[in-house]
Amino acid sequence: MHKHNKLTNQLAKNILRGVSSSLDCRFDIENALRKIQNKTGDYNAKQALILLRTSQVYSQNVLTRHFNQKVPRKLVNLVNFNVQDILQIIEYNERKLEKCLLIIFRLYNHILNKEFSEALNCFVSLIEENGVSLVFYRLIMFLNNRLEYIPGVNTFTNVIDEILAKIQVGNLREINDGVRQIINDRADYFSICSKVKDAEIDDNNKRILLSFISHAPIDEEDFVKNLNAHLSYSLLDAVLYLNLIKRMEFPVLDFWLPAKLQCHLDEIAKLDVNLSYYDGESDDGMDLSFYREAFLLIELDDCLKYKSIHAPYFNLPSSTIRVKTPYEFRVISEYFCDVNKISDLRTTDTERFSISLSKFDKRVSTLFENTSAFDYLLNKHDGNLITCSDDETIFIKVMSRTRDIAYLCLPEYIETIKDSCPNLEVKLIALCLLTASSLGDDDDADFELRKVFQNLCNQKYEGKILEALKSFYQVSPAITDYFLMSFDEVFISRLFNINVKPNQALSIRAELFDWYGDISGEKKYNDRAKNTRIDIQINKHRQHIDDSRIYAEPARVMQWITDNVNNQLALQFDNIDKLANPKLQLDWYNLRTSLNPENFVGIVIANSYNEFVNNKIYGISSYLGRRIRHGTAKGTGVGEVKALSQNPEFAPLFLENYFCEEWNKWLSTYMASFDELIGEYFHIRSDKKKKGLLSPHIDNDEKSTIANALVSNLYKSYLEIDNVIQAPVLITEYCWRLIDGDLARARQHILKVKSNVSVFNIKEQQRVNHKRLIQKFSEAVNALTSEKFAIVCSWFNKPSYATQSADISLLFKVVIDEIKKQNSSFEPVVEDENTLQMLTGGHYFVIYDALTIIIKNIAEHGKQDGVINLRYTIEKPFAEGSKKSLHISISSESNSYSSYLKSKERIRDSLSSSNIVDAHVIEGDSGIKKLKNMEDDKLIQKLDFSFNDKSSNPLINAIFTIELDY
Fold it and tell me: What is the pTM of this model?
């Protein structure tokens, strides 16, 4: 037996023998190893580990083996082996490792040649050789991910699913979840990287995932820990990691792998990657997909080189602080050898894109490679990219041929561009980048951005914001995204030099969204414009004055959720296994301890609630500050009470010294209580304000129950309609439910303060005169303080209009008024039930769309001054589990019998048409098709039309229903 297989310590032997009967329980094995370490030291713990990993006696243990048939239940992180220890273990297991490497070589060959059946056979052979490992997992995940883009391969994907189930890939779910999201093109790459970095998961799991994102260790200590993390999965992975470090020329102690193993590894490295796997992707996304997946095939020189070249530049600045190895310096210099000035980047559109493995080629470079080259150039010249007027034009053009610049580039280099260039357009772009990179937290950049934009707008575009953006779009379309991100209504309302009135800001923003949606073809911007205008019109008709003390602006909260949450929710729900009973129970106190999609959903919800509470412009925090702390809190609580002492009726009392002393003492305590409430309690709880009454976190059992209900309802809605369109409304509504408990506790605290300080009385009555007057004064004071505390208490109630809502009659009037503006001859007689049936934001947006289509059709094809009648009924659920529905019908008169017949035929043709997709792009007679499309998208149900030619003016009746969830 090899010396590493010997365990000489008797106590350690006895402890290890104790687990022989419980090899299927990883907890018993872990506890035994810790006991050996604690009682006999690290050396014996290492020997025990080796015995567990090699001895036939322990071959069925589920925790740790050098060679596996299944994924380990956990990666042991007990003691670290040094490099020489591991090399000796490798040498002892050389023959077994050689067998596995031969299969891996064949496996790589088959995958690269797209010989899928043979590749799957190799996976089976590797399982039989106990070769389940990270490299096994990486290769099967590559194949699984790429097969999604190849039609007609369902048979192979089914076999892959069977293999993954056979090796029990779920044993290390954190690694599986992390890898799936790193390689998922729909997931934001930088968000996933940050989540992995911040995840509170087992150290070895985290190290492996981080090594997939950034394959180069930070230093020698990091290298040894990463090596041991790979060893804890399998000995094969330790060999491959050592070889990776050697290929990268990482400056650690010299070591040599056995010659036969090195020979096989070199053969694998020389295989050519097959880039045709990425032919099915969009031209401007294929190289980013390849970059994201390169770690899966890191044994290939092509993949290691590509990742090593781009990782320092296509990464967050905080992730790239590391000395490059000689290998990295060499391959980066060779790749970017022709990139010396900004004109060496691609500045025009190209018809042909390709992945450049050996050298940057601006003629075919995609967004990803051009971005990496831009960041390389920026670092090379310390931000001094622009040296002449031609460079200014090129810089603006490059912004449309790069991506994520605001997040990738060091802010100080962007500052250099801004400060060194007199061109206002370049300054504006640099300021937009700085504002985006700071996520709005840089007030100086925000102020300077407004200043520069106003100067430019006034000088060149007569103060017209939209004209300025149109001009920018002609030169650099991509930079317009940054402008739209920065130009919210607060920003627009502060453009004082352009004479923008505060009440115009929302309309201007809607105009910007509409224009950008039209020109870019991105419907989401048109939707945002439409929703903004709906809210403007509804508020005009409602004539509603928002005077609640505690408030959060629902439109802006929902817009934030739409922009920042919807895509993430859709991605994570897509990754959750379909559940028959979609009730998700999350541990809200430990969301960051896992990378599973359920926890990511929890993080997204927690972030939404934090935004709802903490946003300083439209969240609870804003109104708590403006309307309570800095508003009327102290004035309301103290003003009138203090003024009682000036009432002439009570003047005799203040001639007595003892009374004055008692009054001043009480008043001082009373006023101090309000000072304390305002200074310490009327705040959002934080490290600085630990006594804050309102918490931005889901931090108690009551909130956890509410949050779990929200997640379950979101997921249920996603399963029913296959999208997350209801998410903004649902999340906003549940945010009010989450804050409601804090509001109740705030009211309790205020009442507690009241009970301590609100009652004024004179204790030693014998020391004063005017006892009846004192009694009257005390009653007046106490009645007043009770009233004032009741008023302050009422401020901490949820407002009655907390979520976006409107009654259906109001919505009907808004739509008709909008159509009237577009058609001056349209003057219908409107009949409705003036119903108070309230609709929340998500519902009223849908009904607004449907009503707009119907009324517009009436205006174009019906009687211009005819009667339009709105009726509705509530339909109760017809079965358990179904929802109640709002049944809406709108009848209208026809101009004549002939026009009635023509409309009837047109409507029936549209309803029976199978070509409803064109309704989004073809105007004209597409209104009914758009309604049909809304029905197909499950936004409305039971769409139908009925016809009545018995009356003097024939009637057409449009009918649809919408499901209600309240």
Answer: 0.75
